[in-house]
Amino acid sequence: MFTDLPLDELRTYRPPLPEPPGFDAFWHRTLTEARTHELAASFTPVDPGLALLRCYDAEFSGFGGHRIRAWFLLPRAAAGPLPCVVQYLGYGGGRLLPHDWLLWPCAGYATLVMDTRGQSGPNRPGDTPDPVGYGNPGVPGKLTQGLLDPEDYYYRRLYTDAVRAVEAARGHEAVDAARVLVAGHSQGGGLALAMTGLVPGLAGALVDVPFLTHIRRAIDVTDAGPYGELTRYFAGARGHIDTALTTLDHFDGLNFAARATAPALFGTALRDAVVPPSTGFAAYHHYAGEKELQVWRYNAHEGGGGEQRAAELAFARKVLG
Q1: Residue 2 pLDDT
Q2: Whole-number mean pLDDT of the chain?
Q3: Any binding-site annotation on 153?
Q4: Which residues does residue 295 pair with via DSSP β-bridges, in sequence order?
Q5: Catalytic site residue 186?
Q6: Domain Acetyl xylan esterase spans what residues (predicted)?
Q7: Does CATH place domain 7-320 in 2.60.120.10?
């Protein structure tokens, strides 16, 4: 069933920004601290049996200097420097294997697939631990880890990792640093959206059914996971709700969208109970750069699937060449 506002209301839905005091200073300080650690990006050749690609097991220093794993893939026959797609992952998954990421290198682009610290699953394995503990009691998952203080929140580390992933890609000799695009679905879409407000000079962004945007509304209109982690936490942590919501405001995609300059392609699905469509429309309407939106009326969290990927390929050709 449709899960949110009617489409005619969504097309004009533009709620106020949930910007906390000191938002820009918080992120400036966070990224300045991260850059006190050498990026020390490394690219070790591997042979996964893909004759048309050059594949590298990559590492770089993310938040706190913690080593973050990635795949770096290059079309073997292409001459560099190449445009590059930095790919972020959905919630609960890891970087998988090189053959799982053939779309962008087959289109002729360098591709860096960032592993997600502390996330993995039986069908989506990851390779990057999260060495930071968290103080407040939480529920299983990542959304409540460190939730009572923006300084300690899990997504402060993950967003910082994502910024450093762009820096690692830009520093590779095979990459044209002026032609880097960020991409992701769900949590990955939320990371891509955040990068548009944190990383200057991006060539573009692919923001598909973005998680972690317009968070206050999301937790009011869905109990589905992962947002359900927050509502379950709030049901027990009754005295901490306002503190936690203020933390979440520091990571809300609406605030990054309002600072964006790169062209972006969004995707949203009207039957999505995981990421309510009003949250994606809100991000789209606040997005300050050039933008396009694909709306999938009869799809859930999978969004437009292959049709969305086709639209992304066309968009990438337009902004990357």
Answers
A1: 85
A2: 95
A3: no
A4: 268
A5: yes
A6: 2-317
A7: no
- Is 249 considered catalytic here? no
- The 3-state DSSP class for residue 82 equals strand
Q: Which of 61, 120, 186, 278 is catalytic?
A: 186
pLDDT digits (tens, 9 = 90+) for 211-268: 999 999 999 999 998 999 999 999 999 999 999 999 999 999 999 999 999 999 999 9
Percent of the chain whose predicted confidence (pLDDT) is above 70: 97
Residue found under tokens 């300080």 = 29
Judging by beta carbons within 10 Å of its beta carbon (0-12, 13-18, 19+), is residue 283 exposed, middle or buried? Answer: buried
Catalytic, out of 185, 249, 272, 286: 272
For the chain, domain boundaries: 7-320
DSSP state of 170: H
C-alpha Rg value of the chain to the nearest Å = 18
Reference 256, options 143, 177, 162, 130; nearest CA is 162
Contact 98, 73 (CB under 8 A): yes
pLDDT tens per residue, range 278-296 = 999 999 999 999 999 999 9
- CB contact set of 250 (below 8 Å; sequence gap of 6+): 20, 23, 26, 150, 153, 156
Angle, helix 227-236 to helix 241-249, in steps of 10 degrees: 150
Q: Which stretch of DSSP H or E encloses residue 27?
A: helix 23-34
> Given this model, what pLDDT does residue 132 score?
87
Annotation says 24 is catalytic: no
- Is the Cα torsion angle 274, 276, 281, 283 positive or negative in sign? negative
Query: In the predicted model, is pLDDT for residue 136 greater than 70?
Result: no
Three-state DSSP at 291 gives strand
Angle separating helix axes 154-170 and 23-34, nearest 10 degrees: 60
